[in-house]
Structure formats: structure tokens, C-alpha cells
Amino acid sequence: WAALEAAADDPDIAWRILVRRAELGDHDPAAVTALVERDPDPEAAIRALTVRAALPDAEAKEEVWQAVFTDRAVHAGLAMRRLARCFWRPGQDELLLPYGERYLQQVTDLGSGGMLELSSSVAAMYPLVATEDFLARATVIAEDPATPPYVRAPLLKETDTLRRKLRARG
Predict the structure, then answer these.
(1) pLDDT, tens digit (0-9, with 9 covering 90-100), for 111-166
(2) Ramachandran category for residue 90: left, alpha or beta (phi over 0 → left; psi -120 to 50 → alpha)
(3) pLDDT tens-digit profile of 76-91?
């Protein structure tokens, strides 16, 4: 925890340290609470949720998923992209695989909101862990004329990007 103490004057670095430690399974809720209290960023609470998103823990993943897709507590933009990067952590494939299915079930029913915000959320939370079946189903949903345009465009783009990444990895 010496690195966290050394980053005391820089909340951005402190958040990065807490995210990495959480990803490694070394989560300190008291350190997160203390950082929320001293960080002047109005989105400090969302950054705390980002730390939980990095945890290799089913309960934490579910809490974050609910905040994004049910409560819609995270607005599009930098905060959503940070949270998504932490949610879809490498090495957590087994834990994350079921969320691809949930994504496909929920992405077309995001409710109301600005089209740019909804489109950005669809893109940011696109699963980074997927099977060929997921990619095929995502393509079908994206090509369905009944799918809202703010879902179709990012879904097509992200599916194509992931398909290319997987192909490049061999």
C-alpha cells in the first residue's frame, strides 16, 4: 500500500492503483471510501464503482452490471469507458462470459435517453469476451431493422472489431 500513500496528492494515480489491486483480488473498501471523500472529482463515486468493476468477483460484477443497465447510474463518456475497461478485465473470461448473453438480451431495451448517450453506452459496454455464437447473434441483432439505430451502428462496429481481434489472435 506504499504506492497508494505515494499517490496521495494525485487522485487519478490513486484510483489506478486501487483498480489494479482490485483486479488482483486485493480490494480495500476503506481505501476506496477514503479516496472518494478526498477526491474533488464529482464522479468519484463512479470511480469507486470502477474499482469494484475490476474485482474478479461475481457479486461485484453483478453490482456494476445493475448500476449500468438497470439503474443507469453511469453516464456515457469517460466514466463509462473507464468502468467498461475495468469490468471486462483480461483473465476474468470465465466470470465474464455469461455477461455477453446478458448484454445481447438487454442492449436493445435500454429505455429512454439521448441517442448519443445510449449509443456510447452500447459501444463502451460491448463484451470483450465472446464466443463465435455470441458474434453471430450480435450480428443478427444488429442487422435486424427493428433494432434501434443507436444500437445497430455501435453493435455492428464493435462486433466487427472483436471478430477481427479474435481472428488476429489466431
Answers:
(1) 666 677 778 888 999 999 888 899 999 999 999 998 888 889 999 999 999 999 88
(2) beta
(3) 888 899 999 999 998 9
User: How far is it, in rounded angstroms, from Cα 135 to Cα 115?
Assistant: 23
Q: Are 79 and 103 in contact (CB under 8 A)?
A: no
In the block, cell 492503483 appears at 17
Q: What letter represents residue 65's amino acid?
A: W
Residue 150 near residue 120, CB atoms below 8 Å:
no
Rounded distance, CA 142 to CA 80, Å?
22
The span from the CA of 100 to the CA of 44, in Å, is: 27
C-alpha span between 156 and 163 (Å, rounded): 10
pTM: 0.87
Mapping DSSP to helix (H, G, I), strand (E, B) and coil, where does residue 25 land?
coil
